[in-house]
Design goal:
CATH architecture: 3-Layer(aba) Sandwich
Organism: Daejeonella rubra
Function: Catalyzes two sequential steps in the biosynthesis of coenzyme A. In the first step cysteine is conjugated to 4'-phosphopantothenate to form 4-phosphopantothenoylcysteine. In the second step the latter compound is decarboxylated to form 4'-phosphopantotheine.
Low-confidence stretches: none
EC number: 4.1.1.36, 6.3.2.5
Pathway: Cofactor biosynthesis; coenzyme A biosynthesis; CoA from (R)-pantothenate: step 2/5; Cofactor biosynthesis; coenzyme A biosynthesis; CoA from (R)-pantothenate: step 3/5
Keywords: Decarboxylase, Flavoprotein, FMN, Ligase, Lyase, Magnesium, Metal-binding, Multifunctional enzyme
CATH class: Alpha Beta
Mean pLDDT: 94
Bound molecules: cytidine-5'-triphosphate, calcium ion
């Protein structure tokens, strides 16, 4: 009801979430991609919306469906498309949580025709994609909360703190890959949240919707 909605803590707040993989075209039938399912980002979008926020979800290719009809979903394919959609939605956004597993490199040239197996060897020249999170970090105005993820296999905390600072984030969510059942293609996730003061909070392995609630609780703490 209207009365109930009034009491939700993120009512009147605008939120932006990126989720899923990106696909970088090689030719008309092939791409470079990754195994991200989009589950973590979709769960965060649903949680922010349940807390009353007006949510835009920018999603790379994903089989997932949203149960919340209030979420504005924008489907994109490549890192470049995700950057454009993110930049155009960022002004006026109070909370941005970037979960997408964006490809770090894309083919330098996209072949207009299907590449034939003419030769015994084949090389692909790759160039770096734009860092969407770092770009929003540069654009960020006072009062805007920006959250990113980090997937590390070594020097996890130190590397995550580097990303937090370099990309001008309010906090970073470190995904544990070493622990059984972490991150990709999984229903569960084990995270550590690191904020600007380098305060660390580690959580148990739990379902992604509960992880989403932990992340959103940290956002509520920051909002005061
Ligand atoms: N990210 C992004 N755009 C990119 C690459 C990453 O927005 N082109 C975001 C991800 O959504 C995530 C964060 O940056 O929130 C960290 O991603 P990660 O792959 O861990 O770090 P990178 O900065 O890409 O560095 P590396 O892969 O070399 O560790
Ligand atoms: Ca990366």
């Amino acid at each position: 009801s209207h009365d109930l909605k009034k009491k939700l803590p993120l009512t009147g707040k605008k939120a932006l979430v990126t989720a899923g993989p990106t696909y970088e075209a090689i030719d008309p039938v092939r791409f470079i991609g990754n195994h991200s399912s989009g589950k973590m980002g979709y769960a965060i979008a649903e949680e922010l919306s349940a807390l009353g926020a007006n949510v835009t979800l920018i999603s790379g290719p994903s089989a997932l469906k949203l149960s919340d009809k209030n979420i504005n979903r924008i489907d994109v394919t490549s890192a470049e498309e995700m950057l454009k959609a993110s930049l155009s939605n960022f002004p006026g956004t109070d909370i941005s949580i970037l979960c997408a597993a964006v490809a770090d490199y894309r083919p330098k040239e996209v072949s207009a025709l299907k590449i034939k197996k003419d030769s015994s060897e084949f090389g692909l020249e790759l160039v770096k994609t734009s860092d969407i999170l770092a770009t929003l970090g540069q654009e960020k105005k006072a009062g805007q909360i920006l959250v990113g993820f980090a997937l590390e296999t070594d020097n996890e905390v130190a590397n995550a703190i580097k990303k937090l600072e370099k990309k001008n984030l309010d906090f970073i969510v470190l995904n544990s890959l070493n622990d059984e059942g972490g991150a990709f293609k999984n229903d569960n996730n084990k995270i550590t949240i690191i904020d600007r003061n380098h305060n660390k909070e580690s959580f148990e392995l739990k379902p992604k919707n509960e992880v989403a609630a932990d992340i959103c609780k940290k956002v509520l703490d920051l909002l005061g």
